[in-house]
What we know:
3 copies of one chain form a homotrimer.
Chain A: E1 3-7, E2 10-14, E3 21-22, H1 24-39, E4 45-49, E5 54-56, E6 58-59, H2 61-66, H3 71-86, E7 92-96, E8 99-101, H4 103-110, E9 113-117, E10 123-124, H5 127-130, H6 136-145, H7 148-157, E11 160-161, H8 163-168, E12 174-176, H9 181-189, H10 197-207, H11 209-215
Parallel strand pairs in A: 2-4, 3-6, 4-7, 5-8, 7-9, 8-10, 9-12
Antiparallel strand pairs in A: 1-2, 10-11
Helix pairs in contact in A: 3-4, 4-6, 6-11
Amino acid sequence: MPTLDRDGEVFVLDLGTDENRFHPDWLAAVNAALDEVEAADGPRALVTSATGKFWSNGLDLDWLGANPDRLTEYVVDVQALFARVLTLPVPNVAAIQGHCFAAGAMLALAHDFRVMRADRGFFCLPEVDIQIPFTFGMSALIQARLDKQTVHEAMTTARRYGGTDALAARIVDAVADEGKVLATAVELARPLAGKPAATLGTIKSRMYSDVTTALRDPSGASLG
Amino acid sequence: MPTLDRDGEVFVLDLGTDENRFHPDWLAAVNAALDEVEAADGPRALVTSATGKFWSNGLDLDWLGANPDRLTEYVVDVQALFARVLTLPVPNVAAIQGHCFAAGAMLALAHDFRVMRADRGFFCLPEVDIQIPFTFGMSALIQARLDKQTVHEAMTTARRYGGTDALAARIVDAVADEGKVLATAVELARPLAGKPAATLGTIKSRMYSDVTTALRDPSGASLG
Amino acid sequence: MPTLDRDGEVFVLDLGTDENRFHPDWLAAVNAALDEVEAADGPRALVTSATGKFWSNGLDLDWLGANPDRLTEYVVDVQALFARVLTLPVPNVAAIQGHCFAAGAMLALAHDFRVMRADRGFFCLPEVDIQIPFTFGMSALIQARLDKQTVHEAMTTARRYGGTDALAARIVDAVADEGKVLATAVELARPLAGKPAATLGTIKSRMYSDVTTALRDPSGASLG
């Protein structure tokens, strides 16, 4: 389960030690951590990392299979998290130490910046292969954060990008060696910790108002 | 006139041996070829090439001059082809072995990927020079597929990009030597042939819904 | 105050010799210069430069402090200038010989192309630090002219880009040594002087119709 630590001005959210899929309890824990970060006084920034082979594999398809009647409600909650991170009034960096797939990759894209391990792990949007089309909101999020041909390739071919490829495609902003991903992300986040929160939140909310409208539209929360 | 061949999973559409302008009969033949590709069973991808000095020079201005009363209907049909290719549920690559101008360039941009001959031939949007402004739908298509400053330069200066320049501007995804353009495109398309068609079509349709809406709006089908 | 000169087909607008902030009289002088350029017969292009350490620092905050009741009217006028330059039916290049900050940077982004001094001066959007959020129209302008992650970094971190960094981030199209910025911009503009004005204006107006709608919406002219 997600846990929150603090390194000076930089909060470090660890998404967990397994595949870190978005179980409802996991979503609640992440939101509670974000509540704590937002409520903190003084300069602060956020780094989102994880432990082990995975950053996050996204939707909890096992839980969804057991709770098919809660599909729409679940997608609404997931998309609300994307919208929240995308407009968070706190500077934030995803420290992608392991695999980052599907809705996990979208959560990474909602962050301000991304640092990825150079030599192992993939960033991948496998939706076309697993036959789960992106919702309109998910499309809007991905299209808002990546260059046009990178979007097209990532969304239509399910290409797996290693760290170096992801940097070349401008999916991530930096790569780092094993064991240095988190530290690199923290050092990227720290100088941003003093940005005025209210202004930062307004700037992001206006930049991405079309995206958050799409993400928060329950009529678009269909994976079919 | 356009002809359709097959190389294993990869259909090869040859746009013709002259300037391959969009005469109504040419449009009908291209649409019939796309019908055949879409209706085929099993894994399949599409490569669109041509024979000789031209890939396509776009609108058939001679025919339009002789049929001025059919202008809007004609532009509607052309834009419908752009929208169809842009959201085709079949992976596709344009193999640009020769000049690719104006609406011909737009048709190339509607493809998933582009391979261009490195040493001869130009990609060019000459509309500003020939004083035929892009429709809103054409603008939306070009803006959806190229980086922002590339769009601005291409649409406002009518710059002629050779293969190497087009690669640097990220208009095309690869270049190849003379005689290897088609083979390079086929090898790029082949591994994509198994992508699930329905999901692929839904993904593209959602990604580009604003573009296809603009392309399919007859009130925007004015070249003036 | 702004002055207009002419070098053959190329008009050179000098924004002034101090910080070149947007005082209402300065706005009127710039608009009068643009009127003169637009009304000129024959081929013409525009280069916008300045004299001294600054290209422009943007909004005249001293004047605004003394005229708080005119805030909305003032922002409407500034945004009207951005919309005018963005869709100007005359090819134009910003010759950024000095600091280019805030609304000054936005005015530079409204130009077709940008040349920046390589070794001194910064391009910067400091709004997050000075706690003046971008209006929706300003957001739309910046987002229409820069790559996605460049937009995000520039708008959320207030990074100061030197010339070389601005070129790498594709904020500017070229850099030049001290004393060669203006000449480089003039030589970039000159071959474009013959572009048909009406078509060029229509092309730009359609490309950026969403941006100019946002810039011209008085209800969005709030800096708070």
